[in-house]
Design brief:
The complex is a heterodimer. By secondary structure, chain A is α/β, with parallel strands linked by helices. Chain A is built from 14 helices and eight strands. Helices cover about 45% and strands about 10% of the residues of chain A. The longest helix of chain A is centred in the C-terminal third of the chain and has 17 residues, at about 210-230. The mean pLDDT of chain A is about 95. Chain B is mostly helical. Chain B has two domains: about 15-110, Orthogonal Bundle (Fumarate Reductase Iron-sulfur Protein, Chain B, domain 2); about 120-195, no CATH class. In chain B, about 55% of the residues lie in helices and about 0% in strands. Chain B has helices spanning about 15-25, 40, 55-60, 65-70, 75, 80-85, 95-105, 115-130, 135-145, 145-155, 160-165, 180-195. In chain B, α8 (about 115-130) packs antiparallel against α9 (about 135-145) and α9 (about 135-145) crosses α10 (about 145-155). The longest helix of chain B is centred in the last third of the chain and has 17 residues, at about 180-195. Chain B starts with 13 loop residues before the first helix and ends with a helix. Classes of the chains: A alpha/beta, B mainly alpha. At the A-B interface, α2, α3, α5, α9 and α10 of A face α6, α7, α8, α11 and α12 of B.
Chain lengths: ~300, ~200
């Protein structure tokens, strides 16, 4: 693959709970052949409750502004690392592209800030770019610091694969019930894939933030399986999955009498470590609230 | 979105179903539902719902407006999209659940449902600052249950907050915000105006 340029949408979690996702994505993409330029002054995507809190069209206008600002950076495609950002930005973009009336309405709203969206950009998830555009051979080739002996449970979650499953522009992963790309990344970085069944289980998403007591059992199912599979770490591409599964382990232990202390990392962090990048500045390993000594010992 | 909701007079009153069809995005696909229950069976959080999606769709057909709009079901949806990919009839279940929640909020049914507070505070942050503040949104939500409950819930999450702060994933100080908050607010106000007039 020749060098590719994409416009990057970091999303709100990149400045908070998901800083290590953002940092590791920025660290690995250029080496993997993708140069990124940020959307200038990007705003929130609306996540999963913007539709309810703000109403459908104002929620879509959040995406409209991001698309208009992305267009100012050039007509290359957009990439984001966050599942909710992908869900809203990709979904909203497709809606605007196929519905002339919607595009007109969004542009009428955007005109209030002297913005417009008239391009036909495409929006991709960073996993999709790594799997389909960059390819595993490239990841494997650049993984010179192989993570030998690290056992990884690949937990894909929901919104990365499901919302646009089997649509022409959405994802192109092998399947949405049993996706294999996380395991392929694990193998490409020289780590070991564990036999982990609930790979597309839900952690509770924003309901876990609101009412953790209702979703602890969902996260326990995931932890049970990860521990039973002998995993050293769980790898997940979603910032909300990562934060939920990490921060609620205390509550799960208290509720169920377990003693889980399972690190949850992003595949982009594993790639960064395998590429021999700096363990803090690039891989963001110090941002784990549950740290993996084994992974940190492998890091440069 | 300004049409009045028809009231049900008979046991099977399709007026409400027609109204939902015309006023909820994707509502036209609801009549594809054949009541197989794959959605409710696939739902990770169905046990927390008073009515799963399958039952909710049947209630809509039965014209049970009050029961549907005051149900907690759509507010428990985690947006996992398992029902969407598994529905054999192509009903966009998750989207309909969100649409029904938005409708219930708009019609004044939702305030008693606590998730509505969360989406309100979330929208306040997204629309005023242009960004989600991961500290303010949950905290405002905790205190929507009253001062004592707010303190209680905040304390319960104190250790999590401290861990996040130590890891540099939560900051102290002013919320992050976009530069052009004025422009964003003008865009959103206009979008609201367009939605209300159409």
């Amino acid at each position: 693959m020749s060098k590719k340029k994409m416009t990057y949408y970091p999303g709100c979690s990149s400045q908070g709970s998901g800083r290590h996702l953002d940092e590791s994505i920025r660290a690995i993409l250029p080496d993997l052949g993708v140069d990124i330029v940020d959307i200038d002054d990007w705003n929130c995507c609306g996540a999963s409750v913007g539709n309810i809190g703000g109403g459908p069209l104002p929620n879509l206008a959040l995406t409209g502004r991001n698309l208009a600002k992305a267009q100012e950076e050039g007509n290359q495609d957009i990439v984001t690392g966050c599942a909710a950002c992908y869900l809203n930005t990709h979904g909203g973009n497709e809606k605007i592209k196929e519905d002339v009336k919607k595009r007109k309405q969004i542009n009428e709203a955007l005109a209030e800030a002297d913005l417009s969206y008239d391009e036909d950009l495409d929006v991709h998830h960073v996993m999709e770019v790594i799997v389909n555009d960059i390819g595993m051979e490239k990841v494997e080739e650049l993984s010179t610091n192989k993570l030998k002996g690290l056992k990884v449970a690949g937990w894909v979650g929901c919104q990365t694969v499901r919302p646009f499953a089997e649509t022409e522009t959405g994802g192109k992963y092998a399947t949405y019930e049993d996706p294999t790309f996380l395991d392929e990344i694990t193998e490409a970085v020289g780590a070991e894939v564990t036999d982990f069944a609930p790979k597309t289980n839900c952690c509770g998403g924003s309901v876990a933030v609101m009412k953790p007591e209702k979703t602890l059992h969902l996260m326990k199912t995931i932890l049970d399986a990860a521990v039973e599979s002998g995993a050293d770490v769980v790898s997940t591409p979603c910032p909300l999955c990562q934060t939920n599964l990490e921060m609620y382990q205390d509550a799960i232990n208290k509720e169920y009498g377990t003693d889980y202390n399972m690190p949850v990392v992003f595949p982009s962090q594993l790639i960064a470590v395998a590429m021999g990048k700096d363990k803090e500045k690039d891989a963001g390993l110090q941002r784990q609230t549950i740290r993996s000594q084994k992974l940190e010992d492998m890091a440069k | 979105m300004t049409a009045p909701i028809p009231t049900s007079k008979r046991k099977y009153d399709l007026n409400f179903a027609r109204w939902v069809r015309d006023n909820v995005a994707g509502g036209d696909k609801m009549n594809m539902c054949m009541q197989c229950g794959t959605c409710s069976g696939s739902c990770p959080i169905g046990t927390e719902m008073e009515d799963g999606p399958r039952k909710l769709f049947m209630m809509i057909r039965a014209g049970m407006k009050e029961e549907v709009l005051s149900s907690n079901s759509m507010w428990e949806c985690t947006s996992c999209y398992r029902c969407v990919v598994r529905c054999p009839r192509g009903v966009p279940v998750t989207y309909l659940m969100q649409g029904l929640a938005a409708l219930a909020a708009k019609e004044g049914y939702a305030p008693k449902v606590e998730n509505n507070y969360f989406s309100k505070f979330f929208w306040m942050s997204a629309s005023k600052l242009g960004k989600t503040d991961e500290r303010l949104v949950p905290t405002a939500y905790y205190f929507s249950f009253g001062f004592v409950e707010g303190i209680k819930r905040s304390l319960a999450n104190l250790k999590i907050a401290l861990n996040m702060f130590k890891a540099g994933r939560m900051h102290i100080g002013m919320p992050h915000k976009i530069r052009d908050t004025k422009g964003l607010q003008a865009i959103l106000a206009k979008a609201r105006e367009i939605e209300d007039r159409s």
